[in-house]
Amino acid sequence: MSDQNPTTGPLVLVVEDDPDHRDLLAWACATAGADPLPVGDATAADAVLAGPLGASICLFVLDHRLPGRDGLALCRDLRRDVRHVVTPVILVSAAAGATAADEALDAGADAYVTKPFAMADLRAHVGRLLASHAAAPVVAGVAGVADWAAQFARYAALAGAASGAHAAGLEYLRPPIEIEERRRA
User: Could you tell me if residue 39 is left (phi over 0), alpha (psi between -120 and 50 degrees) or otherwise beta?
Assistant: First the structure.
């Protein structure tokens, strides 16, 4: 987790405003074999996404209640970003119950973890989602967003994920597809 060491595993952006929770989340990711990049809010996350590491992120771990733009809004924004429409997202929150989990999944999260969380459970989510991301088809060389969306739809159908959280990804592809279609017209 040192700035001096090169990346040793998949890059995970951890967005949590509480320093103690941020450290715990980063540690859980590191012990699952990932290279966590912890930040304190959505603005700092935006800066990372705009920088050279932005396209290299393999997983997002987002706190629900962040100062400024919350984790749900950040998750929705990620699902509109063609670079991260299928990048897994874990939303972490102190809010328990089906409604809170449904809101997270509706925003495009792949997993919802309540605080306090069992470290083993969080590591299992991180490991599972990183493995599914690594198994996703490579989209390099795809001609445009519309072609990429079609490839994503095929992948989702093949993976059996056409329902649930991944189906929401298709909805979030609509704005970039429309932009790409207008650009081509």
Answer: beta
CA dist 120 and 87 (Å) reads 22
Closest to 165 in 3D by CA, of 66, 96, 95, 78: 78
The CA distance from 33 to 180, in Å, is: 36
CA–CA gap between residue 97 and residue 85 (Å, rounded): 26
88: Cβ–Cβ under 8 A, 6 or more apart, which residues?
58, 59, 60, 110, 111, 129, 130, 132, 133
Provide the whole-model pTM: 0.72
Under 8 Å between Cβ of 11 and 37: yes
Q: What is the distance in angstroms between the CA of the first residue and the CA of the last residue of the chain?
A: 46
**CB-based contact 13:78 (threshold 8 Å):** no
Element (H, E) at 176: helix 165-184
Residue 23 CB neighbours (<10 A): 15
Give the model's pLDDT for residue 93.
93
Question: Which pLDDT belongs to residue 6?
Answer: 43
Strand 111-114 versus strand 57-63 pairing type: unpaired
CB 132 within 8 A of CB 86: no
